[in-house]
Amino acid sequence: MSEVNALPCRIKIKPFVMPIVLMVICILNIESVISGVKHALNVCAVSIIPSLFVFMVLSDITVTLLTEDDTVALPPKITAFVIGSLCGFPIGASICEKLYIHNEIGKDDAAKIIPFCNNASPAFVIGAIGVSMLNNKQLGLLLYFSQILASLLPLLFIKVKAWDGKKAKSNHSISEIFFSSIEKSILSILKVCAVICIFSVVIALLKSVSLEYLSVFLEISNGTAFCASLANKTPTLAIALCGFCCGFSGICVHLQIFSSLKSVKVKYYKLLFCKVLQGFLSSIFTLIGYYLFF
After folding, report:
1. Is residue 223 part of a domain?
2. How many CA atoms lie within 13 A of 132 on its CB side?
3. Domain hosting residue 196, numbered range
4. Beta-carbon contacts of residue 206 (< 8 Å; ≥ 6 apart)
């Protein structure tokens, strides 16, 4: 009596198979793809570029001049947090990397604080979410400050070592700094817009199969719009989910952060953990404020 040992058959999928499958899905749903890209380009032209590009240029110039001014001694993580909170993502990540390039902080410290220095801008949270989506400016203020508090609290527990080496100094003129900032900001804004286009297509495909609720985890503007649509039926749930969206910010923003980094590398699972933590904290603070003031 012979015994036949069956060897397990392992099917190894080649890396190029996935993009081909996605391409076929896009071809079969070409209407959703086109509408998604059109929507993204409209958002980029009307909202993203006007509200982000100028801040990218000014923040880059600000950090360059701050690092070259020995009379100003702001803690690097506070500098990155304040600029990132005022200008919106992914500017906070760019500022952290710039502080590392200028030898203001170490590479590991820059990677630690990046997740907590990227927040949605006050213009987006107060204006777009509060006024446009929820029809309440005060709710927008609540969401913004809840998000800020959810980022600031963990950041305070992160120790950043004082740089004991020689700080990088440049002898560039103001005009050189200005045009260098413009050049870097153009590249950054193009990357941001490209990522938004991709995710807009993904969300359009999800909507075609009634899975738009997944946008809460994918992209902040579509996610908060979906959450705000629940306000008439379940206002408490809508506010809590909007708070989570602001803190978590969405995978689209996570990729924008990575696209803006060159010298500093952040492991995604660490970034994801930090943003999930921020999402839950922001949601909790939003609910507390909602019950106290509304």
Report:
1. yes
2. 13
3. 30-155+171-293
4. 212, 214, 215, 218
What confidence category does residue 70 fall into, taking pLDDT thresholds of 50, 70 and 90?
low
> Across 21-25, 50-54, 141-145, 179-183, which has the greatest mean pLDDT?
141-145
| Mean pLDDT value across the chain | 86
Q: Quick one: average pLDDT of 27-48?
A: 87
Distance CA 262, CA 184 (A): 12
pTM: 0.81
What is the Cα 247 distance to its own chain's centre? 9
Q: Is the pLDDT of residue 7 over 60?
A: no
Amino acid type, 266: V
Residue 212, amino acid: E
Residue 15 lies in a domain: no
Owner of token pair 């058959």: 9
Closest by alpha carbon to 99, among 66, 52, 55, 58?
66
Tell me 114's DSSP state.
G
- How far out from the chain centre does Cα 71 lie? 32
Q: Is the model's pLDDT at 185 over the cut of 90?
A: no
In the chain, the number of structural domains is 1
Mean pLDDT of 189-209: 88
Q: Could you count the other beta carbons within 10 Å of the beta carbon of residue 280?
A: 14
Residues 243, 278: contact at Cβ < 8 Å?
no
Q: Is residue 25 part of a domain?
A: no
Domain-located, residue 236: yes
Sign of torsion over alpha carbons 217, 221, 196, 60: negative
